[in-house]
């Protein structure tokens, strides 16, 4: 069989620990035997980030800007323990944070659904994708403890020195104060990423906040979404037969539970933080959650939603067998290959990526799965696979399909 060609490179960002081991297995078993893999490789493993003073992370994000599509392995975000473990020059920032800041993107997280791994909500038939606004609000807050009587005010000083003041509270005793902000430009970028992604997926977009209580702050989010939708997206949504609607956050949670899935749920920063963990758990397993960063100008970075699975890696280092789920990482690759194929008009590549996804799902549905899924699967006959064994089982199915 002739290997599939790629004209434009995919930006490949390697990572750390167990997911780095899976990364190589996936390439060796599921990709390079079938594709003339054309990637521009960036090693985001912690050691190399340290050696390059983290320049490699910035360069990889610049490469995504240039080529349009990247695929990323999970990486360590250093803390004090990691600084010691890897003798780091300093506590480098989260690579995902750095990349997000450069691409100015929104992160979309969606579960991969397979028979036998049932969501806790039985009538969820299709994935629910969460889009989390990744700028501002309480994540960039200034806070203060108040020790006694006094007056708290919001003060805005314009460039020309004029002041605007709003009373927050007349304190009779001790309490707390918080100042948060957001930017129209960031909210608009978030809105455009969401509308673009909905068009890409041909799915409805839901957005919710609390504008009845927060008449300026949350209302501003609602207004910006509405204005951009009317001006730039309404016609295309109608053409595709998909809808956008805004509702209150407490109304939306009820609708989500009653739904059958199959839509995109745009969340403000805090709502997205909480709700994405809720949905990941409700859909079954972290090993089955994919994540894609989409910039307002349509650049894509695909990855798994989980981390580097450190506990499994230490077992691996001791020479013990591991049963680590590679599904989300495989889907990061297929997502990126499909997007590359769509952009380049490379139907063979799109077709291959779709087959690999089908082969992965059917492997699990035939009872072959890793330990995390074996624990929760409702299938009657289950074969718990080691990490490589699972990937090789997928390869067998894939070869039969090709
Ligand atoms: P984690 O790697 O997501 O793993 C937490 C636990 O979840 C694992 O110990 C494992 O449970 C289970 N798990 C996660 N993914 C799995 C998979 N593919 N297959 C089977 N089980 C899986 O989170 P962590 O241990 O808190 O973080 C480890 C490192 O990852 C940290 O250094 C953190 O900075 C980094 N991280 C990176 C990203 C990213 O690059 N996007 C995201 C999050 C965390 P059991 O141990 O019970 O089997
Ligand atoms: Mg969270």
Structure description:
With 402 residues, this protein is α/β, with parallel strands linked by helices. The protein folds into 3 domains: 1-106 and 297-402, Isopropylmalate Dehydrogenase; 119-141 and 180-283, Isopropylmalate Dehydrogenase; 144-178, no CATH class. 45% of the residues lie in helices and 21% in strands. It has helices spanning 17-31, 46-51, 55-67, 80-85, 95-103, 184-201, 217-240, 249-258, 269-283, 310-317, 327-344, 347-365, 371-374, 387-401, and strands spanning 10-14, 39-43, 69-72, 106-111, 128-132, 142-146, 150-157, 163-171, 175-179, 204-209, 244-248, 263-267, 289-294, 300-304, 368-369, 383-384. The model has no long low-confidence stretch (mean pLDDT 95). Bound molecules: NADP nicotinamide-adenine-dinucleotide phosphate and magnesium ion. The site of magnesium ion (MG) has 2 residues, from helix 9. The site of NADP nicotinamide-adenine-dinucleotide phosphate has 17 residues, from helix 10.
Write the layout of secondary structure elements.
Layout: E1 10-14, H1 17-31, E2 39-43, H2 46-51, H3 55-67, E3 69-72, H4 80-85, H5 95-103, E4 106-111, E5 128-132, E6 142-146, E7 150-157, E8 163-171, E9 175-179, H6 184-201, E10 204-209, H7 217-240, E11 244-248, H8 249-258, E12 263-267, H9 269-283, E13 289-294, E14 300-304, H10 310-317, H11 327-344, H12 347-365, E15 368-369, H13 371-374, E16 383-384, H14 387-401
Parallel strand pairs: 1-2, 1-3, 3-14, 5-12, 10-11, 10-12, 15-16
Antiparallel strand pairs: 4-5, 4-13, 6-9, 7-8, 13-14
The structure holds NADP nicotinamide-adenine-dinucleotide phosphate (NAP) and magnesium ion.
